[in-house]
Write a structure and sequence with these properties.
The protein is mainly α. It contains 18 helices and four strands. Keywords: Signal. GO terms for molecular function: oxidoreductase activity. InterPro entries: Multihaem_cyt_sf, Multiheme_Cytochr_ET.
Length: 620
């Protein structure tokens, strides 16, 4: 090019408008998201002076990617360092509407999602991209903040990977958030990865073929609203119960055809392969049915040797074995407590009826009065049985748990005689001891169970009449107390409506004081007259002027403006004056108080001299 031509072009460039100069030097218009970087003055925002594009310059604006690249996460973080040149996938200067993301030959739908660290498998491969890359599901805080500031921005970053972030939990939180433990991506049902053997109840026999819904019944409960962008619930009105399903006993699911006559240990005779196939103890029970002692309940599961031997130093015995009483085989689990209570004058009753009980059941100490052959606990001792003891349950006592009155006493275990322990050990039987305290002393004395909330203030009365002199059995707070009859301070007037706690307050130990409460007015009420009317050494006698019906008018007052209340009798026009005309309010220790003493009693103490001294010294 000739020098004159070059100079001409340079001068034209300098003289042309800025937009025209940009067209001369720019390869083409920027895309719409980057159009704010158009122009010669902004080129160095992306192009360092004298150099090509800088990835650091891109990340300075696209801060949401910077940390992901540093941590090696996502598509950009997993790219090899040699391929991290942004312009390889994001081409610029191709026009305003040019798509900045180059998805490759297959386009967006052909993108290999595994390159982003989350391979699409199963049904996920057929889901539309926008279904998962929904701005409402973004879990990355940096991306969420970016979208908050630029709501028009489109991005595939920040999509969650947890199942529960996109899918409504059909199990309503029963089984935790790790859906992949049971479910695959090919189909939600059936749960191909679930193995019942990994649960607390392994399926075997005919249980394997039972439909899930037979044991896991539906719970009718409307599903809550799914989170924004999440899939709606498949079953909105109900869900299957998987947690809290009882399975420890066969009877949790199956009806007992024996009606509990043979106990609850079904597996001792039956197997899951076939209910009608009876094995083991069932055969043994069939033999025992021919004897005088058919096996029932828990006895059916006891090993033959436990009752028949052989034992050390003793051969097996099958005849002549005592069985009429429980104590023929079992040691006294109550270590003699009931024997003392059944003594003459003791607490135990005779049963109302002995029909249908074993021999000896008429004895109040007979085990089968309270315990069954199915199991030792729970005991059959109802409130009606307690009513026949020395202490009848009444009122609120009928709702009290047994253990609150019969607490466990660990010392009872030590009362099993050594001889009994040795005999049980020889027969290979366990030492069973009930630690419940049954032999209670003075059961009719409330203080045997209850702490005295009054701190012995009514000790004499309690010894003579008991707590029930004031308190009922239905409720401790329902009190039969007459203040006029039972106290030295009858309640009258407004005292009748005052709350008990306003006079009877707790002391330093937290015990409400009922005795030693002051009866003088000043013991509860502040002196409204600030001591003006107090007698020397005796304080203010409020009752001299005031009634309990009310402290001031319109309540009646005992005070009359004459002797003996005051030396100044009201007469004439003085009788119609309002009290405050002569008794003004004054401040005493910051409080407004009516002045009653001292007050002037001569005329000139209140009235101006109308005669202006003309009659000074005059005595009529």
């Amino acid at each position: 090019m000739k020098p004159s031509t070059a100079a001409l072009l340079a001068s034209l460039a300098l003289a042309a408008p800025a937009a025209a100069r940009a067209d001369v030097f720019s390869p083409g218009p920027l895309s719409r998201p980057h159009q704010g970087l158009e122009g010669l003055q902004r080129c160095t925002k992306c192009h360092l002076a004298g150099q090509q594009l800088s990835a650091d310059g891109c990340l300075a604006c696209h801060a949401e990617l910077k940390d992901r690249v540093a941590r090696g996460q996502g598509l950009h973080g997993r790219l090899p360092a040699a391929e991290r040149a942004c312009e390889k996938c994001h081409h610029e200067h191709q026009g305003r509407d040019f798509a900045l993301v180059d998805w490759g030959p297959g386009g967006k739908k052909g993108f290999d999602h595994a390159r982003a660290g989350f391979e699409l498998r199963g049904k996920h491969r057929r889901v539309d991209c926008a279904r998962c890359h929904d701005p409402r599901l973004v879990a990355d805080p940096a991306v969420a903040e970016l979208l908050r500031k630029q709501p028009e921005r489109k991005t595939s970053l920040g999509a969650p990977q947890r199942c529960a972030a996109c899918h409504f939990d059909e199990h309503r939180g029963q089984l935790g958030p790790d859906c992949a433990r049971c479910h695959g991506e090919d189909a939600w049902k059936p749960a191909a990865r679930f193995d019942h053997a990994r649960t607390a109840y392994r399926l075997d026999g005919k249980h394997v073929k039972v439909a899930c819904a037979k044991c896991h019944a539906d719970v009718a409960e409307a599903a809550g609203a799914p989170g924004p962008g999440m899939t709606p619930p498949v079953r909105a009105a109900a869900y299957a119960r998987y947690k809290g399903v009882a399975f420890q006993a066969c009877t949790d699911c199956h009806k007992d055809p024996h009606q509990d006559r043979l106990g609850q240990a079904c597996a001792s005779c039956h197997v899951t392969a076939d209910w009608k196939h009876v094995t083991g103890i069932g055969a043994k029970r069939a033999f025992h049915e021919k004897t005088r002692y058919p096996l029932r309940g828990a006895h059916a599961t006891v090993a033959c040797e436990a009752c028949h031997g052989p034992w050390p130093g003793e051969r097996a015995r099958y005849k002549g074995i005592a069985f009429a009483r429980c104590t023929d085989c079992h040691a006294d689990a109550h270590v003699g407590q009931l024997a003392r209570a059944a003594a003459p004058g003791g607490a135990l009753p005779r049963p109302a009826s002995t029909a249908g009980t074993a021999a000896g059941a008429a004895d109040p100490r007979a085990c089968d009065r309270c315990h069954g052959v199915d199991r030792f606990l729970p005991a059959r001792f109802e409130p009606e049985d307690h009513d026949r003891t020395a202490y009848r349950l009444e009122g609120a006592h009928r709702a009290v748990a047994c253990a609150l009155c019969h607490p466990k006493d660990a010392r009872l275990a030590a009362k099993v005689p050594a001889r009994v322990r040795d005999e049980l050990a020889r027969h290979r039987r366990p030492v069973t001891v009930s630690l419940a305290s049954l032999d209670l002393q003075r059961p009719s004395d409330c203080r045997s169970c209850h702490k005295d909330p009054h701190g012995r203030q009514f000790e004499a009365r309690t010894r003579a009449e008991g707590c029930t002199a004031c308190h009922g059995l239905d409720s401790f707070r329902k009190v039969r107390f007459d203040h006029a009859r039972d106290a030295r301070f009858p309640l009258t007037g407004k005292h009748e409506r005052a709350a008990c706690g306003s006079c009877h307050a707790p002391d330093g130990a937290g015990v409400v004081r009922w005795r030693g409460v002051p009866q003088a007015c000043a013991g509860c009420h502040a002196d409204a007259h600030a001591g003006q009317l107090a007698a020397k050494g005796q304080g203010t006698d409020c009752a001299r002027c005031h009634e309990t019906a009310g402290w001031k008018a319109p309540a009646p007052l005992r005070f009359v403006h004459q002797k003996p209340f005051t030396a100044f009798t009201l007469d004439g026009k003085h009788r119609a004056l309002a009290c405050e005309k002569c008794h003004p309010a004054v401040q005493v220790d910051g409080a407004a108080v009516r002045r009653y003493r001292p007050l002037a009693v001569k005329c000139q103490g209140c009235h101006a001299d109308f005669h202006q001294g003309a009659f000074r010294g005059y005595v009529p």
